[in-house]
Amino acid sequence: MVLKKDFLWGGAIAANQAEGAYKEDGKGLSLVDILPAGEERREALFNPEVALSKEYSHYPSHEAIDFYHTYQEDIKHFAEMGFKVFRTSISWPRIFPKGDEAEPNEKGLEFYDQLFDECRKYGIEPLVTLNHFDTPLYLIEEYGGWRNRKLVGFYERYAKVVLDRYKDKVKYWLTFNEINMLLHIPFFGGGLIIKDDENANQVKYQAAHHQLVASSLATKAAKEINGENFMIGCMLAAAEIYPYTCHPDDMLKSVKENQKQYFFIDVQSRGEYPSYTNRLFRELNVKIEMEPSDEALLKAYPVDFISFSYYSSRLTSADPEVNKKSTSGNAFKSLKNPYLQASDWGWQIDPIGLRVTMNQLYDRYQKPLFIVENGLGAVDELTADGTVEDDYRIEYMREHLKQMIEAVDDGVDLIGYTSWGCIDLVSAGTGEMKKRYGFIYVDRDNEGNGTSERYKKKSFYWYKEVIETNGECL
């Protein structure tokens, strides 16, 4: 047996993509609550001033899949599959509606008490992200988002409240979801609205510094509240970036691009800015403003483990003309890899890339890894007998799990695996429901119509057997 006996199998969702109830029990608005669906969503993500000033016909986060009211039914389904771990997030504006209040919203805290109790009733370990793309909207409108140092203090207060409240219910925590996304979609990742006349890199990397300090402060609080009983992780949107050809210029370009994605995790894992940022910041004309205690704080409180999402590898060239052919299957641009197939949304499917990424991450940091997102977004058809014949999803996951196990056999220390969107939910990038990842079909469409009934897909029973056999039967 390659995997540990206590390997944590499970699934993952995010509060803003599943809960709905966007104003219920005192919850405030998050940045996601002003984002529409479909083609308009991409415009809103990259032009947030438009999203703030425009009225859209449908806001998918407002109802989502109504997990706020159906969590008991849904967790029962997860337990039937045999989940050992369930990754979710706490909605920051459900706890601090505006983000800068002195006291938390008790109704919000009570909801997560009930949610985590329900998990533990079935022996499911919660894995909780503190900030999964849902910075309170007020903090963006009033303070300018994470460009403002004040958000460090607001986040620290929020983190201390929930870490203390759930210290007996949650062991595994992630400080920020896909923290490197701040460089690619700055509104999503940092609540940033960057003016045309600003140095965008200065704004983004300064905001990144604030998040890195906040992450260390959360880790510090966790250790003071619950010592070694807490495991605190960072979270990277990971994908090895291959060179387009074996030309040395392409190889060097891929090395530099990989450094950019690892920058955040270098700091969170090693506790200091890597040496390559000296040249990077000089060339980008970036000057990080720090407080005197920042460097010591980062060094004293690195994370315990490295978690990451993996959906596809990427490809880059040093030739500007070649790079013009790059496309955005998701938030990241990539050249088309002629050796790979792609999903319905243009995400290139590369199971071996997962093994490559795992080896690179473990060799780089020598800290335990946790795969907290992986899966296939596809158009599913509900059959007349109430199921989905999603063999394509099973095939995708089977091939990735094979490579995951190979990486563990290579010597990678892996804590667990949580597939993304274990129940259908609203897509983060497109706001769609038709882009489905789950083992459980939710009867809602892109406009929010439907019964919200839950149906088990073919993959539900396949994943149940995978967990039962600890990955021996794929």
UniProtKB/TrEMBL annotation:
Pfam families: Glyco_hydro_1. GO terms for cellular component: cytosol. GO terms for molecular function: beta-glucosidase activity. GO terms for biological process: carbohydrate catabolic process. Keywords: Glycosidase, Hydrolase. The active site is at E373. Belongs to the glycosyl hydrolase 1 family. This is 6-phospho-beta-glucosidase. It comes from Paraliobacillus ryukyuensis.
